[in-house]
Amino acid sequence: MWYRIELAYNGSREDMGPYVPANHRPMESNTSSFGALAHLLKASLGSGVLAMPLAFKNAGLLVGCIGTMLIGLICGHVIHILVKTSQQLCVEVKKPALGYADTCEIVFQNGPKPIRKFASIARELVDWSLAVTHMGACCVYVVVIAESFRQVSVEYGGPDWSVTAYCALTLIVLIPLTQINKLKYLVPFSAVANFVWLVSICISIYYCLRDTPDISERNMATSIDGIPTFISTSLFAMEGIGVVMPIENEMLKPQQFLGCPGVLNIAMSAVVVLYGFVGFTGYLQFGENVRGSLTLNLPLDEVLAQTAKLLVACVMLLSFALIFYVPVDIAWRRIQDRIPAKTHRWAMSGLRLFGTLFIVGLACAVPKLELFMELVGAVCLSVLGLLLPSVIEIIWRWGRDIGPTHWIVWKNLVICLFAIIAMVSGVTFAIKSMLENL
């Protein structure tokens, strides 16, 4: 097949031996396996962990535990096939590393003839799904920040304004913070945020384990109507596919990312255990009153609980600029060539200002934390985290070692069907909830 020949010679011909991508990565790509594990855990254990009690509320304790393990298993497997495909592709095209969008585009370009014309569409789909996912996360951050400061303000005699007003007030900090356009200047904020985040999670777990009610007071399972919401919220919480490829691309020994025990398996096991634990204990403690962020359920009259709320709010303020960097970068790459070079600095500032105002405006318009998580999880993460990697594996291996009757094809088709059902049902229930809250 001619496109395989094209792949085989699409690179340097200096070496006639096997091409080892890791040997050609820049010197800066020297992250150890332990460092990669730490980065992956840090990226995965974000604000989503505080949303797991809400997911358990929609499924019940027993179904929630089983569902968390199943979704964790599916997410881990899908990340595995994406990374494995990317690593094999790097050898074929003689590239040291490929990102998610690059992998999608090259796989489509060199797939069966009828689908090659969709290569650019696949790349755009990945990029904009990543952008919308991160913008949705930013909206979640704004609402949590506003809710947290409002609760503390009301408790201590401050103004009892609406959540919308507090969302608007976040602009005082977010506008100057989002004007930082170099990642290296955001590193100190990230370091502080990581420490503060750990402290706030520990405080939240303490309240989950304090004077827990009897397990019989909680639902073991709920109606089928709650399952789409559970899946959407769990995907929002657990799916970290957007950070996987950048971490793998920086590894000194990328072959240790996969395997057993590999970086991915260890990280996903830890994520599933912690998320399941927080979801179980959070729902057990707060029951049907559980909120989209666990800290919003903490007692209003205790200093330690209020401290945890403020710490989480501060973490999200500091982390906002990091999350915001992704959609801005994706948008800027598409418009910078159309703008005169001498006005690039002003144009970038304007783009960042517009993006910040848009995100905060969206949060003000729909200050329902749960709806953002359900919509982002249902749409973007179903596509990014489940559908596309499965399709990519089929295209990449089609005609090489699999055909129409191979079990891998049917396995991936089942994952695709699950992704489509999760997306359609999740969006349907999220829109229904949104209309009910208008």
Automatic annotation (TrEMBL):
What are the residue boundaries of the Amino acid transporter transmembrane domain, all occurrences included?
30-431
GO cellular component terms, alphabetically, are: vacuolar membrane
Please list every transmembrane segment annotated in the UniProt record, as residue ranges: 34-55, 61-83, 125-149, 161-178, 185-207, 227-245, 257-283, 303-328, 349-369, 375-396, 408-431
Q: Which InterPro entries match?
A: AA_transpt_TM (IPR013057)
Signal peptide as annotated in the record? none
The keyword Protein transport appears for this protein: no
Q: Where in the cell is it found?
A: Membrane
Which keywords are on file for this protein? Membrane, Transmembrane, Transmembrane helix
Xref: Pfam families: Aa_trans
Q: Does the keyword Transmembrane helix apply?
A: yes
Molecular function terms, GO-annotated: L-amino acid transmembrane transporter activity
Q: How does it sit in the membrane?
A: Multi-pass membrane protein
List the protein's name. Amino acid transporter transmembrane domain-containing protein
Q: Which organism is it from?
A: Bombyx mori (Silk moth)
